[in-house]
Specification:
The protein is α+β, with helices and mostly antiparallel strands. The chain contains two helices and four strands, in the order E-H-E-H-E-E. The protein has one domain (4-65): Glutaredoxin.
Length: 70
């Protein structure tokens, strides 16, 4: 399991940018699609204190909401 997890949804350009950034940096990550993985949306809301937005990046335990690019 990777130290980076990215919560995403289909069609999200910020999610795509975050995944590209980590891929380009050579960082492996686990992707969790909040619409396809049971319980993922609830976990996302827990991580973000109720904010329903993606991407949410958990990097070595640090939670980052949103992605603005490298």
């Amino acid at each position: 399991m990777s130290n980076v997890t990215i919560y995403t949804k289909d069609g999200c350009p910020y999610c795509a940018a975050a995944k590209k950034f980590y891929t380009d940096e050579g960082v492996e990550f686990d992707e969790i699609n909040v619409h396809k993985v049971e319980g993922a949306k609830e976990k996302l809301l827990e991580l973000t204190d109720g904010q329903s937005m993606v991407p949410v990046i958990v990097d070595n335990g640090e939670v980052k909401v949103g992605f603005g690019g490298g």
